[in-house]
Write a structure and sequence with these properties.
689 residues; alpha/beta; FAD/NAD(P)-binding domain; 3 domains; All-trans-retinol 13,14-reductase; NADP; flavoprotein; FAD/NAD-bd_sf
Length: 689
């Protein structure tokens, strides 16, 4: 059975490696008994989904031994903690949010309405349990998390008509649907080709080449993930895919678009040349190509870097991720973390919110990470508020919690090396002060407008798909204008989503009410004058600045969704990068960990990012900076973090358990398959999806 499973991937790995593979297969056969990890015996009836408990110093029992402490409960932290718990470890998750877990997957309520904060939709690969990401999520929640497939189109890119979005003229829409070829045809039919210097057949061929490049990037990241799990002596099996990934990652989105659409480069051309041709400065002169390039920068909002600066790797993996459609959670997105961490608790672990980790404790003799120092988040906020008002009060109690095996930071490498470790530590010094050893930088943040709307979604005819407003088809110029003066210029891109139309439980939970979320880019530098001010005490200038940003977004909402009017918007509130610092512990309000530029994949940076290991023994990274940004990328980063903690043999045991679980899902979905066929298909999808 196992031999049959590997036949489809021999071309990927190289036929010259058959001898090594046979040896490994014998080891796997001998190790099959390892697949019965504690998590495999857990049933749905033993899992009782419940919200996390609040941290208080008296909950720290010195007699309780934690194997691993995970800092952060976002997609990456939850995945890491869950897999370690299922592998048999006793896990403690510490979340700094005052009252809820989930990081960017959490949702919140105000004014009798609810909004998600970071998971606004995801691809079908996360919702489909027969695909790798979906199977992992099914494994981590034991199938308790349910999803709804979004209909076509799942995304629409909208441009205002010339004249700045005149409400008297209808905006122009371009639809993204399931399937790369179908999306190409959908976009081409809405382009005015009369002004193009290229025929529709040439444009179609170049769009297809663009999609092929995106799929190649997806294959490269699969190889990158496997390289973080496999022992180093097997990395040569993945060398070709990794070299292709790193080469394409060194190119910007703008330059790859120029090479493909203007010069007619193919995938083979871009892999053979020493350097990608550089796009000329300024706007694309061909109006059809300019519009097509702009449309195909979607989904730029999911990695938040303008085309001139963005690595093509980030764009390619994001586009490939959504190529087969999108899904949304049944119920609030908060349920993902609740169900995932409930598995941790059922296996003897715990999760505490309101727990701000102030420092990671290192052993004085060995330098190993052995625990953390924690304070109450809400007490810290109250203490800062009192200090701001001039009172002299002692800070909250600092509590030490020890870990027997490891500490995992799932809040990003910038928090790790700027806030959680001793400033004089050589590794910290290398990260902070040695540009010859690091050229990465934190990602930008976002502006969030959360709206409550009178009336139900069906009556208001609100769209189920996401609307992406693009202010201009010269994307880089639009970003430059906005970043230079955000109150005078509209954002270059705005996400507009209505969770009330996607979640089938919404009408029962919030009858007669709809919600909307708008998201645009936001720079940390705009908000530094208020970074040390407590929440709700940042003054009138801050509120006036927020008001101007909000008005831009409200105008865009009413133009892009013309059936809405201002009097239907009952309530709105604006979040900024400062909100991301307060509620998500983001470094400088960044939404995606490391900024997705070509430097992210440069040789000198590979020890800092896309890597779950650190130079400090016993200390690991999970989440976006362990692999990739966004919810799915962070989840994979959590899986890699768990693998790094477990080591090679522990990871093998966990993989065997997951393989059995995955094959069972495929058998349930396809009962006509033989058991060995299900195992082969599960393995094939694991190494190639």
């Amino acid at each position: 059975m196992i031999f049959a499973a590997l036949f489809p991937v021999l071309p990927l790995l190289g036929y010259g490696s058959v001898g090594i593979l046979v040896l490994l297969l014998l080891v796997v056969r001998l190790a099959r008994k390892w697949s019965q990890i504690p998590g495999m015996n857990l049933t749905k009836d033993q899992i009782h989904p419940m919200r996390a408990e609040h941290f208080t110093p008296d909950k720290v029992d010195p007699s309780v031994t934690w194997d691993t402490i995970v800092i952060g409960s976002g997609s990456g932290g939850c995945a890491c903690a869950n897999l370690l718990a299922q592998a048999g470890q006793r896990i403690l998750i510490l979340e700094q949010h005052p009252d809820r877990s989930g990081g960017c997957t959490h949702s919140f309520r105000q004014q009798n309405c609810e909004w998600d904060t970071g998971l606004h939709y995801t691809s079908t690969c996360m919702s489909d349990a027969t695909q790798r990401a979906g199977a992992l999520l099914h494994f981590m929640t034991k199938g308790l998390q349910k999803w709804k497939q979004l209909p076509d189109p799942y995304d629409q890119v909208v441009f205002p008509m010339p004249g700045g979005g005149d409400a008297q003229q209808p905006p122009v829409y371009y639809s993204f649907v399931q399937g790369g070829d179908a999306t190409i045809e959908s976009i081409l039919k809405d382009l005015d080709l009369s002004m193009s210097s290229l025929s529709i057949d040439v444009l179609r061929d170049r769009c297809e080449e663009w999609m092929k490049l995106c799929r190649l990037i997806n294959d490269g990241f699969t190889a990158l993930g496997l390289s973080r799990i496999l022992p180093p002596f097997l990395h040569f099996l993945l060398r070709r895919q990794l070299n292709q990934l790193y080469k394409l990652a060194s190119y910007t989105v703008r330059d790859v678009q120029y090479a493909v659409f203007n010069l007619g480069y193919t995938q083979a051309d871009l892999l053979c040349v020493k350097q990608c041709p550089t796009s000329p400065p300024g706007a694309e002169p061909d109006p059809v190509l300019r519009r097509l390039k702009a449309v195909l920068t979607h989904p730029i909002g999911d990695y938040a870097v303008q085309p001139r600066d963005a690595t093509f790797a980030a764009h390619g993996i994001t586009m490939a991720h959504y190529m087969e459609g999108a899904s949304y959670t049944v119920g609030p997105t908060q349920n993902i973390s609740i169900r995932s961490t409930s598995v941790v608790r059922a296996l003897g672990g715990e999760i505490w919110v309101d727990a701000t980790v102030k420092e990671i404790i290192l052993d004085e003799k060995t330098g190993r990470a052995i625990g953390v120092k924690v304070q109450s988040t809400s007490q810290l906020a109250e203490w800062k508020k009192l200090c701001e008002e001039g009172e002299e009060v002692p800070p909250p109690t600092v509590t030490e919690i020890r870990a027997r095996k490891a500490v995992v930071c799932a809040t990003g490498v910038y928090n790790l090396y700027h806030k959680l470790l001793p400033p004089a530590h050589p590794v910290v010094q290398s990260f902070q002060q040695c540009p010859s050893q690091r050229s990465i930088e934190p990602s930008n943040g976002h502006i969030f407008l959360f709206c409550k709307i009178k009336g139900d979604a069906a009556t208001l005819k609100l769209p189920e798909h996401n609307v992406w407003y693009f202010n201009d088809d010269d994307m880089d110029s639009a970003f430059d204008r906005y970043f230079a003066n955000p109150t005078e210029h509209r954002p270059p891109t705005v996400y507009i989503g209505f969770p009330c139309t996607k979640d089938p439980t919404w009408p029962q939970r919030f009858p007669g009410v709809s919600n909307c979320i708008l998201i645009s880019d936001g720079l940390w530098e705009w908000f530094t004058p208020w970074e040390n001010k407590p929440v709700h005490l940042r003054g009138s200038e801050y509120e006036a600045f927020k008001e101007k940003l909000a008005r831009h977004l409200l105008d865009i909402l009413l133009e892009s969704v013309p059936q809405l009017s201002m009097d239907q918007i009952e309530y709105w509130t604006l979040g900024t990068p400062l909100s991301e610092v307060t509620y998500l512990s983001s470094y400088h309000g960044g939404s995606y960990g490391t900024k997705c530029t070509p430097e992210m994949f440069a040789t000198i940076n590979r020890g800092w990012t896309t890597n779950p290991r650190t130079p400090i023994p016993g200390l690991f990274v999970a989440g976006s900076d362990a692999f990739l940004p966004a919810v799915c990328g962070a989840m994979y980063g959590g899986c890699l973090g768990a693998s790094a903690v477990l080591g090679w043999t522990g990871s093998l045991r966990l993989f065997l358990a997951f393989w059995n679980y995955y094959a069972a899902i495929i058998l349930e979905e396809n009962p006509k398959l033989l058991k060995w066929q299900a195992y082969r298909l599960a393995f094939r999808r694991f190494v190639s999806d």
